[in-house]
UniProtKB/TrEMBL annotation:
This is ornithine decarboxylase. Residues 29-272 form the Orn/DAP/Arg decarboxylase 2 N-terminal domain. Its EC number is 4.1.1.17. InterPro entries: Ala_racemase/Decarboxylase_C, De-COase2_N, De-COase2_pyr-phos_BS, Orn/DAP/Arg_de-COase, Orn_de-COase, PLP-binding_barrel. It catalyses: L-ornithine + H(+) = putrescine + CO2. It comes from the Bacteria.
Amino acid sequence: MSTLITHRSSRLHTALAAATEDRIVYDLSSIADRYRRLRHELPEAAIRFALKSCPVDEVIGCLVRLGAGIDAAGPQELRQALRAGAPAGRTHYGNTIKSDRDIAAAHRLGIRDFATDSLEDTAAIAAHAPGARVFCRLATSGEGALWGLSRKFGCPPAQAVQVLRTAGRLGLVPAGVSVHVGSQQMTADAWLAAFDSLAETLTALGRAGITLDHVNLGGGLPALGYLGPQGLPLDPPLDKIFAVIREGMLRLRRIHGGHLRFLMEPGRHLVADSGAVRAHVVRLARRPEPDGEPRYWLYLSCGRFNGLYEMDTLRYPLVFPTHPNAEYVPALLAGPTCDSDDAHAGGRVPVPVPRDLASGDPVWVMSSGAYATSYLTRGFNGFAPLPCHLTGGESDD
Ligand SMILES: *Cc1c(COP(=O)(O)O)cnc(C)c1O
């Protein structure tokens, strides 16, 4: 199954092969490559890595040394970013949802850029982080994304103008607008729609006499290695997405007229394909379903509660390193816990697995580097959080 190693490094492969126990493995050099490639494609956009997608100090440090800043969602993430070496000036509070106390804590840490999407939150920023720079988040439909991030966040253009005008009146700096097209966004059209909304907002702000200095294009850039329901690569149109983003930035600059700068907050795109979970087979069992049909179930040692929270929606490529030329059978895939949600696609979509898998055989869950370390529970059902191992750092180059 060596064809599954595309998008992924041989270093990751070596580290997985060396593991005799379950773990999450990251290849820092491949994360650095992905970052450089993104900078090459979109040189106009400064990167603020969305920390929640991989809150691992070494990963943060690696990206910060390359010039990235950090998008953090609260005081704990802000502290971690600063501890890992991110300068406060390149670190922002990107969560629209925050308490008074959290705003004050961020302000004390030296954070000056805050996202918002409501008048209430803007007033709280003015009270607890006086003089801060605010970014108003625009709503998007989330269509085309695997995770929409729609209704909970963002406001329409007219409301954004009101929020930013109010920010100015309250002594804050109306600094920017932001969007998020939804995580693992699979379409370039969603980006077009986001630029339409940004253009409408910049035009309305211009009429209101408000000039911003930044547009934050958010996250949503896809990982490349996931599989679709039929087992073929999902194959997101990344080049087309980059082209639409470049064109959209030009369009916004023309509307703005002045010196408009761009930020992006990628998470998944930077880390997903550079990380993998080394799990093992708990049991391959054949059980009759209520309809009487016997079905194979492959129970893995890792599931939704130890790193693979997104396994309900995502299909990760699986590698069975001890069974290179096996005969395959369709099996439903699930984690080890007593929760029936701990399964791939609700236990409805079978995936091919070697027929003669034995308990203890290693399984590599590829492209699972995004959100895996942040979704580790403290030990649901006693299954301990996975340890994290790194390769490709400066010391082992
Ligand atoms: C989660 C998040 C991101 C990262 O999203 P990805 O889809 O992983 O790129 C960026 N910005 C904000 C505000 C987020 O909440």
